[in-house]
Amino acid sequence: MSARRVIVVGGGAAGFFAAITCAEAAPDTGVTVIEKGPHFLSKVRISGGGRCNVTHACFDARELTARFPRGERALRAPFMTFQASDTVAWFESRGVKLKTESDGRMFPASNSSQTIIDCLLGAAKAAGVKLRPNSGVERVAKLPDGGFGLTLAGKPSSLSLREERAGREPERGAVQKTNLLSPALSSRFAGGEGESSAGETLFCDHLLLATGGCRAAAAGQMAVSLGHTLEPPVPSLFTFHIGTPWLRALAGISVEPVEASVPGARLRERGALLATHWGLSGPVILRLSAWGARVLHGLNYEFPLHLNWLPQISAEAIFKDLDSRRKTQPARFIVNTPVAPLPSRLWEQLVLAAGIARDTRWAALSRSAQHQLVQQLIRTEFQVTGKSLNKDEFVTCGGVRLGEVNFKTMESRICPGLHFAGELLDIDGITGGFNFQAAWTTGWIAGQAMAAHA
Ligand SMILES: Cc1cc2nc3c(=O)[nH]c(=O)nc-3n(C[C@H](O)[C@H](O)[C@H](O)COP(=O)(O)OP(=O)(O)OC[C@H]3O[C@@H](n4cnc5c(N)ncnc54)[C@H](O)[C@@H]3O)c2cc1C
């Protein structure tokens, strides 16, 4: 009996994890990763500012799912099978030590994403996975009596692992043509579809689509052509544009904790906030953007934002604190005596925004001005006028509809033999290593399932 063939489309985190898992679990299976770009794992390379935030030190499967605005329920069972602690063990068993930062994010101890790339490329090589860069898949078709035919765009090439690890383009002599389609199947596919002349055609028994987020809906068309539905793509993990001049003057200041909310959209998050040259960023804003990805897109990224700068203190306690300052430091200027833990530059701007003149002393603070100041401290309102993608990590909300996938195997419920993994699915997490964790988990499960069929 001839060996079964598995093709993984997409040489990113999810595709590699699936291919390695499948090839290790079923060594007789021919596993090939097809990547349209010249290099594999290109997002891993740039991830986490070049350090790759591999996962998060959250080792409770239920808690882990709570970090996914899309996919929370679907990921429950997968995380019971392969969660963050399994990721740590997987990399450590292959010689990659991970370290945990104070906020829970986990990185390679080397602080370099290249360590993760080397590990994945090395594991793929050891497991006999075949790698084909520069091979964009243009079309896929389900063959009438089982398996899939894939049509590649343009001229394919094959890069040796050693060259890929060195980050070099292939030498002329290294280019080899491969055609996984047997002559009989080749003529059947070509004849049946009448479309193989445009590019090389490949055949496989099991197909994994791991082509990443569909920021452009065209990126999900292969899944659609096989009967799947795409939830419309919109960005997640972005920062807010705010034109208020005094806020922009505070660029670089960070405050923690701050409570940020979007009235009317039922969005509320607490955490560190960073003032930038264009508005606001930091974990609290990224979390709001992730949970509110769809609703904020619906508002065209124009909405009021409320900030409570002192969420750990009640409004009454703040009022009393200001009262006592009137008594204990009556002669001091208000702008010069900030309430802890607010940075003095921020305090100064909040006092001015409350309508209190720069030369007002505590003794001269009127009752109504004191109320204004408390309001400013617990509910500053800004108008958000747009968004920017976060430079350290961004993902797409939307993708293949989750109800159409069996999360025990990552196999399509619509098209048997077709599997999915990674960001192509309508799954996205908040920032902090959760998006890679979803890629590792879904890739691992898909790899195991394809191996079990082989
Ligand atoms: C700048 C940046 C930094 C990030 N940092 C982090 C981080 O530190 N931690 C974290 O958890 N997440 C991070 N993310 C998110 C994370 O990178 C993604 O969630 C993750 O890479 C998804 O993996 P994937 O394999 O599903 O998709 P991808 O990594 O996008 O891989 C998909 C691959 O498929 C290929 N492909 C697409 N179409 C075809 C086709 N037709 N034929 C052949 N190949 C095709 C693509 O070229 C690509 O190489 C970051 C994202 C960005 C943009």
What do these coordinates show?
With 454 residues, the chain is α+β, with helices and mostly antiparallel strands. It has 2 domains: 5-233 and 392-453, FAD/NAD(P)-binding domain (3-Layer(bba) Sandwich), CATH 3.50.50; 238-389, no CATH class. Helix content is 34%, strand content 23%. The protein has helices at 13-25, 42-50, 61-65, 76-81, 84-93, 113-126, 161-165, 183-193, 221-225, 245-248, 283-291, 293-298, 315-328, 344-353, 367-378, 434-453; strands spanning 5-9, 30-34, 55-56, 98-100, 105-108, 130-132, 137-142, 148-152, 201-204, 206-209, 230-236, 238-242, 254-262, 267-275, 279-281, 303-308, 380-389, 395-400, 405-406, 411-412, 418-420. The protein has a 6-stranded antiparallel β-barrel with strand order 12-15-14-13-16-17. Strands 6-2-1-10-21 form a 5-stranded parallel β-sheet, covered by helices on one side. It has a 3-stranded antiparallel β-sheet with strand order 3-5-4. Strand 1, helix 1 and strand 2 (30-34) form a beta-alpha-beta unit. It is elongated. The termini are close together. Bound molecules: flavin-adenine dinucleotide. Flavin-adenine dinucleotide (FAD) is lined by residues 9-15, 34-37, 42-43, 46-48, 52-53, 136-137, 210-212, 392-395, 422-424, 433-436, 439.
